[in-house]
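User: Structure please.
Assistant: Input sequence and predicted structure:
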Amino acid sequence: MSARPRPLMAAFALAASVALALGAAAPAVSAAPVAPVAGGDHGWPHPDLAKTYEATEKYEDEQQAIADGFLRTDMCVEDTSPEKLGGMGYHYVNPANVGSNDPTRPAAVLYEKNHETGKRELVAVEWVIPNTGQPVAPRIFDRPFDGPAVIEGVGDVYTLHAWIHKKNPAGLFTPYNPRVHCVCPEDAPMA
């Protein structure tokens, strides 16, 4: 089991609490978005990723994500280990989508703060599926989810990130993106 950073645990704990309260079932450097090329030749390893992009590109407008049930958070997740793997950004979780492995219904949309404008920009999506003791990890896009990992307040879950709105040099499905940072470079402490 891998450890999760505390801010991510708190974000998912908040989402789980809201999901229970609502009665929902729970089965900094900016780069241009990674848009599919006309005709569907986008270079992604699975054709369903184009469906994910089409379903989530409207969330480039943060207010649209909120209107569609994604809960805004003010906690930004960044790896603080000596490896400094990068960041995930701000997780906006839709409790109704937790447990879904439908390519068009990720549990979370991830944003990073544009350090020049202060505006949040869509960078990735994430699926979250509770570990119910299934004999194998859930799958989507012909690949298994990461995990399981225990997230405080949520429990044992499988997760899968897809960096379809901002290129991730570490890999499309890697949890952290070395190009995503929570602290503005000019605000970073001097070494």
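Residues 1-10, 14-41 have pLDDT under 50 and may be disordered.
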